[in-house]
Design goal:
The structure is a single chain. The chain contains six helices and seven strands. It is α/β, with parallel strands linked by helices. Strands 2-3-4-1-5-7-6 form a seven-stranded mixed sheet, with helices on both faces. A hairpin with a 2-residue loop joins strand 2 and strand 3. Helix 1 packs across helix 5. The two termini are 25 Å apart. 43% of the residues are buried.
């Protein structure tokens, strides 16, 4: 059983902002996988289905970004999901718009949502897909909570497609093969 977590902030105000790349990726992935992510549970929106004969959960925490770990730890503990079967998708300012990076674990890199998950699970060996949003040219909070420019949006939209395809490849083969392909 795998858990795919997309990070973002709930509400129309935050739709398609830089900080909601995780939501955007899992929305596309769930559409491709034909899994509805609409059940309110575990402080989030949850969907359950099968992809390549793999049982998966898709989770969009509704706790706001910096408290994402509260939602993740609830579903992990309830279903006894192994740390090796969790994949978290989120935005990353250290990557240029349009780039994605798969990592098998490590620090949060300053991302507060990812750090909260690491803290709640007491483990940093969590697989992740980071979607580049670029370095801020003004206040960091205002930057991540704003929508990308038209030029950035085109690059980011391709990164969202790449990240959704990377999730499919992970489920079809494994994380290491997907990492080699997309990094």
């Amino acid at each position: 059983m795998k858990l795919i977590v997309g990070l973002g902030n709930p509400g129309r105000k935050y739709e398609h902002t830089r900080h909601n790349m995780g939501f955007d990726v899992v929305d596309l992935f769930s559409e491709l996988a034909q899994i509805d992510v609409d059940k309110e549970s575990f402080k989030g929106l949850v969907g359950r289905g099968k992809v390549f004969d793999e049982d998966i959960f898709i989770l969009k925490p509704q706790t706001f970004m910096n408290l994402s770990g509260e939602s993740v730890v609830e579903i992990v503990n309830y279903f006894k999901i192994d740390i090796n079967d969790i994949i978290v998708v989120y935005d990353d300012m250290a990557l240029a718009p349009g780039r994605i990076r798969l990592r098998p674990g490590g620090s949060s890199g300053g991302h507060k949502g990812m750090q909260n998950i690491i803290d709640h699970l007491n483990n940093s060996d969590i697989k992740r897909i980071r979607v580049g949003i670029g370095e801020p040219t003004y206040d960091t909070i205002d930057y991540v909570l704003s929508k990308p420019s038209k030029e950035e949006r085109e690059l980011i939209d391709q990164a969202i497609v790449d990240a959704a395809n990377a999730l499919k490849d992970i489920l079809k083969t494994n994380f290491d093969k997907a990492m080699t392909k997309y990094n």
